Amino acid sequence: MSQDDGMRERDAELRFLRSIVENANDAILVTEGTPIEKPGPRIVYVNETFTRMTGYTLDDVRGKTPRILQGPETDPEPRRKIREALERWQSVRVELLNYRKDGTDFWVELNIVPVLDDDGLYTHWVSVQRDVTERKREEEERRKSEAAFRAALAEQASDVVLIVGPDGSVRYGSPSLVNALGYRPEEIVDTDVSLYVHPDDAEEALGAFGEVLAGPGVGSKPVALRVKHKDGTWRYFEAVGTNMIDDPGVRGVVVNAWDVTGRKLVEDELKLRDRAIAASSNGIIITDPNRPDNPIIYVNQKFEEITGYGAAEAVGKNCRFLANGDRGQPGFDELRIAIREGREWSGPLRNYKKDGTPFWNELYIAPVRDEDGRVVNFIGVQKDVTERKELEEKLAHQAFHDPLTDLPNRSLFLDRVDHALKRAKRRGDGVAVLFMDLDNFKVINDSLGHEVGDELLVSVAGRLQSCLRPADTAARLGGDEFVVLLEDVEGPEEATRVATRIEEALRAPFWVGGHNLFVTTSVGVALGGTDGERAGDLLRNADLAMYRAKDGGKNNHAVFEPGMNERALERLGMEADLRRALDREEFRVHYQPKVSVRTGRIVAHEALVRWEHPERGLVPPAEFIPLAEETGLIVPLGRWVLGEACRQAKEWQSWYPTDPPLAMSVNLSAAQFKRPDLGASVAKVLDDTGLDPRDLILEITESMVVEDVTAALVTLRELKALGVKIAVDDFGTGYSSLSYLKRFPVDYLKIDRSFVEGLGRDPKDEGIVSASIELAHALGLEAIAEGVETASQLERLRVLGCGLAQGFFFQKPFPRDTASESLAALFA
Fold this sequence. Notes:
By secondary structure, the protein is α+β, with helices and mostly antiparallel strands. Helices cover 42% and strands 26% of the residues. The chain starts with a helix and ends with a helix.
């Protein structure tokens, strides 16, 4: 199945599930918020049954509280129970008198259940409302009948009592006729009883009547029949007759009939649900936890299709047989605990089909309880999500591996170094990082072309791995830079032996693209393990040592020493200048447009900070942004850039009005994102500048949100509440995890320039760009391609369905005045 087919199938499933919800027998209402938030929980969704039941559409009630359905006659006691349960985020079940839009009242049985997200945070309430007006009316009728029964059994019976003569005429009708069928007794006396029996049921009813007439005292078995109500509708009744023709006070057949319409409707509903379960597009499993080993008692046809096991093969077994002994996954322990505690659970599990083929099963289980709250069954809903899991694993691999050599990338390497340092500290041994740079690689790349250069890098990666132990890690940082992690290192001698082995392995010629190529490498070695080093520190030390090796004549290695501080001193000088730069107004904001791929129109600008150093001139961001982040200066700098960009956006909107207005995109640093006052800071800038929040796009990187998912989610929701839009920058180069991405409230996915660069010539880059665009569309996001430099790249993006693009092909980042002139030319 192609990815497009899979997407269509999933869309069809979503439409089917939405159809089930929209056409459910019960009204469904979804709210967000809590009673402590004024004015209280607000309605965000209702299904069609709710509209039919109440007369209110979603547009009528959206943003309002459920109190719109209540009136002065509504009992305050159930409302108090609801309020107390919501304040504690607990489920609650009550009966409540509500009012329709036209003012008529009706009774509902109301079940309210809180909804949690994947982080365990409560986000919404789901209210399921069942119209029990008929039942309440029946209860009231029975109450009145029972009270009157003590006065006169026959006259006040809750069941309908008729006396029918041998000729079929009604001779007596009890007062209960009024409530049951709408007739006053005098209206049906002397009429033929067959007038009130449904034609399809008449034969069976008359047959039973004939049997009763066979002799005095003869009674009939209960007969099910439909009886005509005075309003023209048909009600379901069960009736028995007794021959009392010889009784002088009766002289007819006494018919006792009782209304079973409610029960019949429930039975019909259950039959409909059974048919729906059998025809579901998901696998359905029902188990009995009260029998030994919680055996399966029912599976539907979709289960058989997914697993290959027939119903006869599955019934009677515990569901664990699908695991085929593979029960070491964390989900199994969680599942067993949920079953033991009688609660819901959902999550992915790796199961196996009958032929042994593994598949990923998205499983949801829920307990079924009887009236006493006892768990009588578990229902499991399973969905085959193998294709989705494979895509996630593929994207995760791409996120943490270099696309050219398939070695770990910087993110994965630093993560492994971090874990290695923690293990080394516990064990008391050493860790070494080797930083490698190929000597004169640029000459080969420039003279023979990038394709030959890329092939050479792949060959270097292969030889590099052949020099290492299985537990060691080789990674590519980018360009011709490789790094190696060595664990359980006794001292610098062992690390330098590995460096020598790598130098000798690379010294042999490479046959690439019809050329015999000779490559040497400079290697920097840094040791750590017990002194609390950080992964970044170790990598930086190895980098410093590598430059010392290059200074020593290349094709050499050097071990880091504390005296290698020349660059550190330079860093200190730049830090001092950086601290003064903001006060001296040395920073400038340059603007690069974002263009609609489809129309070619500028729709937004990205604000990019530059440092105009009084002595060094224009300092590129790559040289001072990392330093600003390390020193904390990035926070006031970022606040300044945000203010300047928003003011500029408002000014351009007034000069060049468009629909929609020109937007402004501003990058957030990790330090800014972690600050608790970020939302307030952004709100103040918007208030000061007058920029509409919808015209501001804040860009974040993946690594900023995965460090603390819960905190990141809170921050993103706070920003979204302001009305601003969120973009994920450099997608595919960091922690590209679908499990995080799908949960965060973002609007744009920015595809990194390193992938856009290969469009039209590198199938791997094109595949990554295409998958990223499709992923963005699947998540309801808009894709933005960075680094577009050629018309062919733009054309490929247009074919792949990318929404926005930016890069030198359109315009370089320009200062404010130059960017304004460019806009003026467009709007001239």
